[in-house]
Amino acid sequence: MANRLVVIGAGESGVGSAILAKKQGFEVWVTDAGKVKQKYKDVLTKYGILFEEGKHSEDRLLGADLVIKSPGVPDTVPLVVKLRQAGIPVISEIEFAGNYCRAKTICITGSNGKTTTTMLTYHLLKTAGLNVGLAGNVGQSFAWQVAEADYDYYVIELSSFQLDGMYAFKADIAVLLNITPDHLDRYDYQLQNYVDSKFRILQNQTPDDFFIYGADDPIIQKELKKRNIPAMGLPFGWTQAPRNGAGIEDEKLVINWKQKTFDMSIFDIALQGRHNTYNSMAAGLAGMVLNIRNEKIRESLSDFKGVEHRLERFLRVHGIEFINDSKATNVNSTWYALESMNKPIVWIAGGVDKGNDYHALKDLVKSKVKAIVCLGVDNKKIREAFADIVPDIVETQDMTDAVRSAYYLAKNGETVLLSPACASFDLFENYEDRGRQFKNAVREL
Known about the structure:
- The chain is an alpha/beta fold and 445 residues long.
- It has 3 domains: 4-91, 3-Layer(aba) Sandwich (Rossmann fold), CATH 3.40.50; 95-303, 3-Layer(aba) Sandwich (UDP-N-acetylmuramoyl-L-alanine:D-glutamate ligase); 312-443, Mur ligase, C-terminal domain (Protein-Tyrosine Phosphatase, Chain A), CATH 3.90.190.20.
- Helices cover 35% and strands 22% of the residues.
- It has helices at 12-23, 38-46, 58-62, 78-85, 93-98, 114-127, 142-148, 160-164, 191-199, 218-226, 274-289, 294-303, 331-339, 362-368, 380-386, 399-409, 431-443; strands spanning 4-8, 27-32, 50-53, 66-69, 90-91, 104-109, 132-136, 153-157, 173-176, 210-214, 232-236, 245-249, 252-257, 260-265, 312-317, 320-324, 345-349, 369-375, 392-396, 415-418.
- The strands form 4 sheets. The protein has a 6-stranded parallel beta sheet with strand order 7-8-6-9-10-11, covered by helices on one side. Strands 15-16-20-17-18-19 form a 6-stranded mixed beta sheet, sandwiched between helices. The chain has a 5-stranded parallel beta sheet with strand order 3-2-1-4-5.
- Helix 6 crosses helix 12 (294-303).
């Protein structure tokens, strides 16, 4: 049996993996090229797990029987390539934890709306009184919970990076919301590679499992024609609800499942906007499959509070509304944000560009955006994309400056929208750090 297990990355995911591995009798060692946060050091010490920081000791890594790597570490990193060449399996935390998980899994992926749909589905199951954990890209580490909790269900948000490290894992209910170009820098700038990665959510499914998917998405539609999918398909879209699936009829969200029907007015859904109605359909379908009662589904969809940093209506200052959409790290997320606004916008954008094509935003920007505040180390691409349609484009290098500039450009009754369309790593730790700095800067106005 593989006994020597090494974890690359001592964040939430890595530390959770180490705890589970220790409990399962592995000889565990954790390595992180950066600094390990004190709270994780304390946990590793408590469990008697050895770790190093500030480097990767290659000899020790190459002596492993099994390696679990953080989803943030690309497959192309020389060390990972070396491990694979040496025939050492490199897997993800989710794959590892799946070996020891007896609970039912509802796994959610897509280019946009994953976190909202995951949180909403979790809220729905919890409201219905099910014993449920929240894991993956949100909540506590999946492996950590498998080691220490005893849930009957897990709602798991999965990014393409997590799916890439999963082989034997199976979702009982797989949800694929949509696919638009994202993270192409990690996929050799080949859209098909990214699409294949997203479709890994279906691997190992059987006819007893379920596949909930966005039927209006052209990329998903094209892929379905090419693939043989054994799981029961449950589509959702903006047309009449199919016999098993969800749709919109007479401004009502309708879900059909077996002989049962659920419906509610789209105006009673807590999360407004077309993209959020899709998210609500996906969560509602998962609830129906799990035989949750209609009144519990209705209650959950109507009282859900939303997700921090995702179109979060934060504060009004002198009649100007400030909206925190820091979680919009790609063009498509920002498209949804701009599309849902109905007042003139001062748009704060920029960061680490992941091969973005801003063309898709042009019509919306032309009709809704009065000024752009660029927030990034290199804003050339944004300036070039919109210079001919937006008269005011301002350059900033920190959040305080960006928020002040936006405030001076906006008038009473207008909106300042932070929706970067880019990753945050040039100036911030992550999108949460960016969102928190935005809110702090707004408070100080």
